[in-house]
Write a sequence for this structure.
């Protein structure tokens, strides 16, 4: 009987460690998964020109995971995008005529720096260059302005096969 007790004593610390690691791993991705799902919803809404829905989804993603960059997000199939909710929230706000909000989100995206290593930095510069022109064209209250063209759709980045 003492042999079994000795073996059990050796397994208990190992089992406790495995259970602690499993619970930590299970708890950690919950926020990331929620942020990724909100990011996906925002991208879908942007694609359908639903600017308000997109802005709400990107804000929800930012509430879960405010830091840009890190792991890429699978949008659909093999379409992967960098996690840049500040940038895309800025696009949605720009389309909603919230120019100050868009500028603030783009400044934050630049400050965090993840966008600077992506091809989207050129699109960011184009969006930012439109801010002064749009501010001058600010519509008088009560008049509708003609709709803007859709934002440039991000192109999927091909992934290289690992050999």
């Amino acid at each position: 009987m003492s042999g079994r007790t000795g073996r059990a004593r050796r397994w208990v610390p190992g089992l406790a460690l495995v259970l602690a690691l499993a619970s930590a791993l299970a708890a950690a991705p919950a926020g990331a998964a929620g942020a990724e799902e909100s990011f996906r919803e925002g991208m879908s809404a942007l694609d359908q020109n639903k600017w308000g829905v997109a802005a709400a989804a990107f804000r929800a993603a930012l509430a879960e995971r405010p830091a840009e960059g890190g792991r890429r997000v699978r949008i659909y199939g093999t379409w992967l995008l960098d996690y840049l909710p500040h940038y895309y929230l800025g696009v949605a706000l720009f389309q909603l005529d919230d120019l100050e909000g868009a500028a603030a989100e783009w400044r934050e995206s630049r400050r965090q720096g993840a966008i600077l290593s992506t091809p989207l930095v050129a699109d960011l510069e184009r969006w930012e260059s439109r801010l002064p022109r749009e501010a001058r064209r600010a519509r008088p209250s009560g008049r509708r302005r003609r709709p803007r063209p859709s934002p440039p759709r991000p192109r999927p980045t091909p992934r290289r096969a690992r050999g």
Notes: The two ends are 52 Å apart (CA to CA).
